[in-house]
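Hi F.,

I've been meaning to write this up properly since the lab meeting, where we talked about keeping a consistent format for the predictions we share between groups. The idea is simple: the sequence comes first, exactly as it goes in, then the C-alpha cells exactly as they come out, then a line or two of notes. No screenshots and no reformatting. I'm using this chain as the first example so we have something concrete to point to.
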Amino acid sequence: MTTDELHDVDARPGRSARVPLLLAAAVALGAVFAATYVVTVRTLSGQQIDNGAFVSWQQLNPFLGSFAQVLRPALPVALGVVCAVLGVLALRARRWKDVVRAVAVVAVTVPLARWLRDVVLDRPDLADLAYPQNTLPSGHVAVTAALCVAVVFLWPRRSGALVAWAVVVSLVACVASLLEHAHRPSDVVASLVLVGAVTCLVLALTQRRTLPSDAPADRGIAREVEPPASR
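Output, unedited:
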C-alpha cells in the first residue's frame, strides 16, 4: 500500500472501488494471523522452530540488550506524545478523517491484541521448553506499530520516507521485545499482521462514497458542457 493510500485513499473519484480490495486484504491478513497461531503455538514442531529462533536472537543480547531495555518501554510513550501533538495540529487543520483513522487504529488494535492474547488464545503444553503461558500477540509491538500507523495518518505531508520510518520503528520494537525475553518471534509477527489487518479495515470503513460514472448526476453535468449536436 502506497503512502497516498494511507493518507487519503479516497482522494480521487472512483476510490470507493478500493473498498473490496481493502476488505480482502484485511481478511487475508486475518488468515495469516490465524495460521501463525495455529502453526507456531498449536503444533510441537512449530513451537520448537519458534523457540529455536527465539534462542538465536539472544546472541545479539550482549551487543543490543541495553538498548532494548530502554527502547521497549520508551517507544510507545514517545510515539504517544508525537501522536498527541500531531492530533492537535490535525484537528486545527480540520483533517477530521485522518484523526478518526488514527484514533480508530489504536483504539481497536490495543484492546483487541490484549483480548486475543489473554482471553481467546491459549498455549497447549506440548512438552517443549518455553514460557508456559500464551504470549501471542505482543501487546508492546501492537501498540508501537499502531501508533506508527497513526503518525502516518496524522502527518501533514505525504512522504515515502515517513512510511519507511514507521516500518523501521515497528521492527525495532519487535527486536527489543525479543531481546528482552518478553516475546517469541511468532508473537511479534502476529502483532504486525494484526495491525495491518486493522489498518486495512479502518481504511475500508472510512472511504468516501462516490457516484458511478454513469449516474444521473454525472449525465446531467455532461449534458451541460456537451456542445449542441450538429444538424
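Notes:
Residues 213-231 have pLDDT under 50 and may be disordered.
The CA atoms of residues 45 and 102 lie 38 Å apart.

If this format works for you, I'll send the rest the same way.

G.
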